[in-house]
Amino acid sequence: MIVPFLWMISTSLKSYADSMQIPPVWIPPELHWDNYAKVFDKIPFMEYYLNTLLMTAGRTVGQLLICSIAAFAFACMRFPGKNIIFIALLSVLMVPSQVVMIPSFVIMRDLGWLDTFYALIIPGMFSAFGTFLLRQFFLGLPRDLEEAGKIDGCSYFGIFARIYLPLSRSALVSLAIFTVMASWNDLQWPLIMTSSDEMRVLSIGVSTFQGQHSTDYPLLMAAAVMTTLPLIIVFIFLQRYFIEGIAMSGIKG
């Protein structure tokens, strides 16, 4: 697993001639640290970085809030047509994103949201996958907790905020990691919805180093290293919660 990352770092420190050498070499004769500085000269990297950070944070906070509320409703509340609505929600997972891309573009255009953060953030603030993941986690919690909350006079919102959310930290972190990874690497949606450099994100910026006839591999890899590093750091610090959210039912001890 680590070999591609090591090769990415190695290539980012090569000259263009060294990157095209056959057979390839792992350690170049001269380390070109200036490749990282050249990335900032080629594209407005920090502006792309900030746009990506805002888009990722907005989507992640939105999914944690909206998906957790929807998951609690499907897991604990009773209302007419609950199962039918949930099945319809899950059917969204079977629809390829390319199928709804043109209707989504028309909606964003009619709302006047093209080339704005509204188009980058709001459509990604909810997902059927996030609702399904948290619903399954909530169903694994003992119903006695909900009944005890009702006896103590808690409303549904009180049960959700005071009982279910504190016990669902690992599941919420898992959803946050999935959302951060998907948003940070998203290319197709920002490429279609934005047209100015002021609204571009990192995935589009990195792709500009790949040309039709030639590719500057050292600069491409240097940009990829700086783009990938935040995700690696996030996963390293949160991997324990990530594994718990997938493997555990919600109660320990």
UniProtKB/TrEMBL annotation:
InterPro entries: MetI-like, MetI-like_sf. Pfam families: BPD_transp_1. It is found in: Cell membrane. SUPFAM superfamilies: MetI-like (SSF161098). It is a multi-pass membrane protein. Coiled coil: none annotated. Keywords: Cell membrane, Membrane, Transmembrane, Transmembrane helix, Transport. The chain crosses the membrane at residues 60-77, 84-105, 117-138, 159-184, 217-238. Residues 49-238 form the ABC transmembrane type-1 domain. PANTHER family: ABC TRANSPORTER PERMEASE PROTEIN MG189-RELATED, ABC TRANSPORTER PERMEASE PROTEIN MG189-RELATED-RELATED. Belongs to the binding-protein-dependent transport system permease family. This is Carbohydrate ABC transporter permease. It comes from Paenibacillus terreus. The lineage of its organism: Bacteria, Bacillati, Bacillota, Bacilli, Bacillales.
